[in-house]
Design goal:
161 residues; alpha+beta; 3-stranded antiparallel sheet; elongated
Length: 161
């Protein structure tokens, strides 16, 4: 789940727009044992402007780096959507954390890098945990529990959308 600055096919997460197989424009990796890959990213734009810390955190889907070997499976697409939704959960968590570190550039300077580093590590770890526990979506019961949890967290963090 890495960002490419050359990507021109980025989709911002919205509650109304779900992924479709047409969004997966990357070439499948024949050597990868998985059936699909969602490349999503937390994008952070942070700067000091007139000694005020301003930032924007977005959750983006990178279409040209996302692929599928099976574009007929609704279950697989649902699993990939949950990865994207989970990235949005972490975008909201990062917004919440950034809101708490202050607005003056002096305050932010010492806290920004550790805050962002911890947020990205938590995001990556939870994505891996989701795949491991749901067996990459093959365990539908576990996946449904994750879906309910992700949905609940999106609602709880709605103020940080």
């Amino acid at each position: 789940m890495a960002e490419s600055n050359t990507s021109t096919d980025k989709l911002a997460w919205t509650p109304d727009r779900k992924l479709t197989w047409e969004d997966f424009k990357g070439a499948p990796d024949a050597g990868d044992p998985h059936h699909a890959l969602t490349t999503a990213n937390l994008a952070l734009d942070a700067k000091c402007k007139n000694n005020q810390f301003v930032y924007e955190v977005s959750c983006v889907f990178l279409a040209d780096q996302s692929w599928s070997k099976n574009k007929k499976s609704a279950q697989l697409l649902y699993h990939e959507q949950l990865h994207f939704d989970l990235t949005e959960v972490h975008a909201r968590l990062l917004r919440k954390k950034l809101e708490k570190i202050g607005t003056s550039c002096e305050d932010v300077q010492k806290n920004l890098n550790p805050t962002v580093k911890a947020a990205f590590a938590a995001w990556k770890a939870e994505q891996d945990k989701f795949d491991m526990l749901s067996n990459h979506g093959l365990d539908s019961e576990v996946q449904q529990a994750w879906a309910a949890d992700i949905s609940q967290r999106l609602q709880e963090l709605e103020a940080y959308q």
